């Protein structure tokens, strides 16, 4: 470092205001506006001080999106380096006045969505989160805990609503449905989403075109109530699941909501969870959970816009050999 650089560096820190700016930047990166707020100074004054400090090489600018953060350069390791590094370490060792430290903490907390910001946004938070992140991101995050190596079955896939979600989580997805029109729409969805690990199969619940023990996890979402043979359909799911394979059932509880039936074209009257559990246990499944899914509160932006029956879920594991067709009890869907 030549004499003129040494003079400039010492002059830059000869001013108490510039030393204070450099000292708070030793705590972490800040924008010009944040520095002004912490120190209670006009932004124009802060900008002039930063210009002088930058010319000495003490500061580093870092752009994040539309904002520029300024920070004090890292000190040399093991206390080495020249005058700039010595002054850098000296600045970091200076005490920060309590009032300045408190304002600095508040500014950083508010920038990162701290307590004050959450207090202000609490009543809008659900709506804001849904608007910016949608309603599925947390489900995808939770599903990532499941083994990615699984081969999964989406039985009664319909238009393939679940396929983008499943295809991103698992090695291979088999999408099965009895309706070829539905399968065509599911294929189109997969093409739009660029899903290359989905295989489509036309087949009824009672007669799935899949090999024995070829599936690790099956999803039967809003489909099992349409089966004409509940016991046979559950036994068929047990046949295609590998030992230890998982089954998730989500369906509609028994109801008499005529408007829902007309709109959806569903006159099944729903599915009795207890009958479903009985059929599962008769077909070699161990039921681990059965419960009614809570309704989404009306104030939540993800809430349904029309009334519908309650939903229930059942999770089960294939633990025993599946009963043969003649051994499966005759369990219908009930009213």
What can you see in these coordinates?
The protein is α/β, with parallel strands linked by helices. It folds into 2 domains: 3-112, Arc Repressor Mutant, subunit A (Orthogonal Bundle); 134-327, Rossmann fold, CATH 3.40.50. It has helices at 3-12, 16-25, 32-39, 43-54, 83-93, 98-111, 115-121, 125-133, 137-143, 163-169, 180-193, 230-240, 258-264, 273-282, and strands spanning 59-64, 67-72, 151-155, 172-177, 198-202, 215-221, 241-252, 285-293, 311-318. Helix 12 (230-240) packs across helix 14 (273-282). The strands form 2 sheets. The chain has a 7-stranded mixed beta sheet, with helices on both faces. The protein is 41% helix and 19% strand.
SSE layout:
Elements: H1 3-12, H2 16-25, H3 32-39, H4 43-54, E1 59-64, E2 67-72, H5 83-93, H6 98-111, H7 115-121, H8 125-133, H9 137-143, E3 151-155, H10 163-169, E4 172-177, H11 180-193, E5 198-202, E6 215-221, H12 230-240, E7 241-252, H13 258-264, H14 273-282, E8 285-293, E9 311-318
Parallel strand pairs: 3-4, 3-6, 4-5, 6-7
Antiparallel strand pairs: 1-2, 7-9, 8-9
Helix pairs in contact: 2-4, 3-4, 3-6, 12-14
